[in-house]
Structures are given as C-alpha cells and as structure tokens.
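Query structure, 252 tokens:
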C-alpha cells in the first residue's frame, strides 16, 4: 500500500476552500474525484498540509494519499492532470515512506499576501488588493516584526471557531517591496483560520496611521477578535510553500 506525495497548485477563485463541503466546489472534493477516477477507488486517507479558505490560492500545497495497489507515479501524474480541471494541477507526484503524513509532518507553512499601491491594475485585480491611499511601510514593517515569535493570536481568527489553542509560532513576517507591490511574507508552524488576512487588515490600519505599532503589538497578548482590524479579502493570498526539513522529514 504505497503512500504518494502530491505537490499541488490551484487558483482559489472558484473554490470554496480546500475542505470538502456538501454542495460546494472544493479543492479536496475535486482532487478526490480525480483520484477515484484515475486509481479506480484505490486511494484513501487524503491529507493536506494546509486547509486554505475560500478564494485562497496555492503555489506550493502538499497532500498525501494512501493507495491500495502498486502504481507508476509518472503515469498517475499524467492521468491526474488529464482529469483535473484547469484551475488545479499536480506539479509533482512521488512515492514516499508509508509513515508520511502531509499535515502531521509539515514543520511550517509560508504564505504571501499582495497589496498594490497606486492606480488599480485590471490584469492583476484577481491577485492583489488595490489601495489608493499612502502607506507608512516602515510602520507596517515594525508591526510585522512584532508578530514574529510565539504569541496568542486569538484576535486574528473568528470568534466562532473550532480552535481551542490559539498560540502559534511565527518564524518570519515581513513586508517586501516588489515593484509597485507590497507583499507580506509570513511563515509559521501553523495558522489559525483567517489569521493572515486579519494580520494584513490590521497592519493596513497601522500603515494608514490610524493605529500605532504598540496598539498592534498588544493584540498578540490574547486580545479578543473585536480588538483587531478587518479581515482582508482572500484573493491576494497564496500558500507558497510547505517546509519538511531535517531529520523529522520522513521523505528524506
């Protein structure tokens, strides 16, 4: 019973997120159907490194699946991409040790959120948040730096939640300037639902001068959701990488 690792890319615009939901088009549901077609029902235990929300895209998602029959990974890769719709693709597929679990063994996940300053861009409207007001990038960078480390992020996730533990360790959080775009690059051991988007929405308040950095930093002490800023739109957010490093990486 081989275990397969799938490296995935998808455009989240027309998906109601990763997780399968009745009556909704989801990445998990679409991939499950393709696996069932290609492997004739022999695939099970599909696991994913990060469950993305509705509208969120992925350039570096990782999933794992157990297959009950021997397979040729290269043939499965070709067959899956011939079956999947054009807004989701398997970039790579390989057999890994049976113990590999894409979610349990991930050491960190990395996201990027793109903000466009100045005039709107029709060609990028599905990938950026356009803002017409000036932003204090230095203040936003200071706020991002404050988020690094282990903190209680309950202010950055919906009040109604299945989470019971709100501490997360942010390994990197920084705003980069890429041409006319500002890109928040954030990596953590794990993320709460909407966490990156609320971080962005709140940091934009700092950038506009409505908040100071100290007010932002106080949120990291376990403040309630109502104390933080708005949830930024989903479409500029992309899961860019999942890290499996060191001796804990069962794929070697």
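Result returned for the query:
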């Amino acid at each position: 019973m081989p275990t397969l690792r799938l490296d995935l890319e998808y455009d989240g615009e027309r998906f109601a997120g990763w997780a399968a939901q009745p009556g909704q088009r989801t990445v998990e549901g679409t991939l499950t159907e393709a696996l069932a077609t290609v492997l004739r029902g022999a695939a099970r235990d599909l696991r994913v490194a990060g469950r993305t929300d509705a509208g969120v895209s992925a350039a570096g998602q990782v999933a794992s699946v157990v297959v009950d029959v021997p397979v040729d990974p290269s043939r499965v890769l070709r067959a899956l991409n011939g079956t999947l719709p054009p807004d989701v693709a398997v970039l790579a597929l390989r057999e890994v040790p049976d113990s590999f679990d894409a979610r349990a063994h991930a050491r960190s996940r990395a996201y990027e959120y793109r903000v466009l300053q100045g005039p709107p861009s029709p060609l990028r409207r599905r990938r950026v948040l356009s803002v017409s007001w000036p932003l204090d990038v230095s203040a936003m960078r200071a706020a991002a730096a404050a988020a690094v480390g282990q903190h209680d992020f309950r202010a950055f996730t919906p009040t109604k939640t299945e989470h019971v533990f709100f501490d997360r360790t942010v390994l990197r959080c920084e705003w980069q300037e890429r041409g006319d775009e500002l890109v928040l690059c954030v990596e953590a051991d794990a993320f709460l639902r909407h966490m990156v988007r609320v971080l962005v929405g709140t940091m934009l308040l700092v950038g506009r001068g409505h908040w100071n950095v100290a007010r932002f930093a106080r949120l990291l002490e376990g403040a309630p959701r109502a104390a933080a800023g708005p949830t930024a739109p989903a479409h500029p957010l992309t899961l860019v990488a999942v890290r499996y490093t060191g001796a804990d990486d069962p794929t070697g």
